[in-house]
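Feature request disguised as a bug report, sorry. It would help if multi-protein outputs had a clear separator. Right now it looks like this:
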Amino acid sequence: MLEVFISYPEFMCLESMRNNRAVRVYISDPRILKTLITMLNKEGIPFTELTANIISNGDIVITNNLQHTIKYLRGKRVYIVEANRATPEYLTNVVEKVKCLLRGKDRYRTLILGIDPGVKIGLVILGDNELCKATVFNSVEDLISTVKLALLNIPYERARVRIGNGEKSARVVNEILNFIEKYKSKELKEKEIVIELVDETRTYNIPAIFRGKMGNIPKDVISALNIAVRKGLVIEGIEYS
């Protein structure tokens, strides 16, 4: 899998500064701490160890021991994200919560996944029209793995999965539908997820709302961006009133 995020660490740092929220870590389990630090660094999220001297109102505190953490807070109002297990799957959920809080939200109202299913497969993820991720894959398997992680771990109310009508569209649609069917009574319960098939013509220019915010990016990502911002034909999904 080739990841090509457009200045993602810098983007996250800017968001953190804009919302005046710093990430503080208080983890006593070395296994959790090692995996968490690796994942935070990979996402370009700056953090410091939690101490009584640096905590501020609005900070995000990641901890595996809430009772011991409270003594450092000294009445400060912070956002607590608990991290009690060392598995990458579990900590992916923790990191996605932190990323959402850094953008000033506890969840996205609308999550949009745009997929360009060509020879190389482009994927972009938008949270309330903010760019969260942009990736290029060489295989459908890697794409589906990332889509599953996004739909299971990113906090959101409703999701739109928009897929271009390319050569691998049928397989991608079927894989995602099978995944939704499997999890709709479990982790995806009460989520609204809709799949749309989008016309891929004229998807080679950067959409207007993102112009000037990106450097040189692969054409597969540009196509996926265009697909993400277009409404398509609804295929099937989970909808709750």
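(second protein starts here, but nothing in the output says so)
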Amino acid sequence: MNRAQRRKMRSQAQHTATVLAGCCFDYDATGNLVPVEHPRAVALLKRTFTVMLQNNCEPHVIQISQADARTFPRGNSDKVPDDCPSWRGVAIDVVGRGAYTLRHSKVLGAPVSIQKQIANKETKAHLTVHTSKPGFPTSHGA
């Protein structure tokens, strides 16, 4: 994405974020590809995409609650211990489509600030794998 495209996306961040959030899909617990429809999940995606678009379209990661994590189709956060933070990351793929990931990460014995740094890097790395090539990821694991 060139500078002019990033500038245009930044100027239309609210609208573009709404479109991106409304077009997200994920695998549900049974392995079917389904749209993200829960209002809280869509609102979280919109807010995160907006911040990303306003910051030169750089991948963006936020910490979210377990309750918010459960609003996404995969819904696997019920298998995650309550004290394990959930992280939502968003990015734009190589053909300009929005992508997101939900990760759960905790480093035992590490200070919270270090845990946040590690989770941020791990979530962005996971996004990079899925945004570096066109198309929807065929893997619905991790």
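Even a blank line would do. Unrelated, but nice: Residues 3-131 form one domain.
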